[in-house]
Amino acid sequence: MGLRGRLVGLAAVVAALVIGGCAGPGSGDQAPPKAATADWGKAEGTVEFWDTNANPRLTEEWQGLISDFQKENPKIKVNYVGLPNSSYLQKVQNALATGEIPDVLLIGNDIASLIAQKALVPLDDALKEGKLSDKIDKDMVENERVNSADRKIYKAPLTALSDVIWYRKDWLTQANLKAPKSYDEFFADAEKLTDPGANRFGFAFRGGPGSMPPMIAMTYGQSGVGEFFTKDGKATLDDKANIKAFKRYVGLYGTVSAAADISNDYPKIVAAFDGGSAWAMHHNLGSFQDHVTALGADNVEGVAPFPNKDGVITSTSPSISGLSILAGSKQKAAAWKFVEYMSTTGNSEWAETVGQVPANLDAQKDPWVTQAQPLEAVVKTAANPKTQFVRLPTYLPDWGSILKTEMEPDFQAVLQKTMTPEDFLSKYADRFEKALAEYKEHGGK
What we know:
Elements (H helix, E strand, L loop, with lengths): L2 H18 L24 E7 L4 H17 L3 E7 L5 H11 L5 E4 L3 H6 L7 H6 L8 H9 L9 E6 L1 E6 H6 L8 H10 L8 E4 L7 H12 L16 H11 L15 H10 L2 E7 L3 H8 L4 E4 L9 E4 L2 E7 L6 H12 L3 H8 L2 E2 L8 H5 L1 H11 L3 E4 L8 H17 L5 H21 L4
């Protein structure tokens, strides 16, 4: 696929979010935070930045980018604070309660709850004044409007990331197995490559923090159900096809995965995969560089969801990671300078580090984008006319908390066989329907 084709594919990935997205609510009674930048103060002083997906490799990259930024902006100092993704939401809520807030926050699909709390400042005026609107992928920007009640932008997009199934090519070669082309073949290979006595398992199962995104992606990917909510507001989570797919996914635990996987978070599944004790894992484009560094590019394959027997591919919509400025920040002008830098000068380097699609249009043309195998797989999936994207309701203010604080403990109960798969899916289908009804009641459309 040529560069033009790849870029069209990248656009298709994000456009799928916008076209398939649910409309956000109308404006509520409260006035949104003031967006005009005239009262943001001077672009100088100290800015506190919270990285909400910290690990040693990414922290080192952020520190390098911050150093470069400070050289170009000597009147601004950026204090970096790294937080683990599994617990950052609670820390942010505590900060809002105490007033000890950062100035800039790295945020992904959990943004709706912060918008609902009026915790973030709209960036529309800043984007326009800085002429960034012509430099950032418009589909990514429009996706952010879907998440807000007033159709304003509360996050400057940095990257888009899609779910990926990672597997070890070298393990297949050693076992004289072909690359899987379907879920049936994938599950069969995982079973064949499992040897508990040698501490080798077919799959690194994420049973702990962050377990819901892979569960949703693997369930809908297998079932072929193409929407999270029907037009009349019914959740499809407990659709018969999803129940069957969910049971198959849960069945990986303890059979082709280690029993200890029940507590696995992101670092643990990466450690298992990169450390040689698991053939496959489910994550997203963000772990690409970890795998390449540990195993070598030739030994790792990243694949988008497998097609069904009719060739239809069902993928959850990509998510957008970006930077937001807190409404209570007293350093908004300086904070914006940092956000602007990461949206332009620093965007390609950051996107390459995390292995994700850059938001900056010039960065999308860089050679590394066109040469990365997992990105190529994602692009091909997006460009395939038989691909359907399941638009996740990230616009629901309760989305993040439902996944993290409600579903995760019950998911472990399913793994421990103290809760049935049917009860789990039924409970949360009802929960999401309730969240949608509340959303509409407060001005949603």
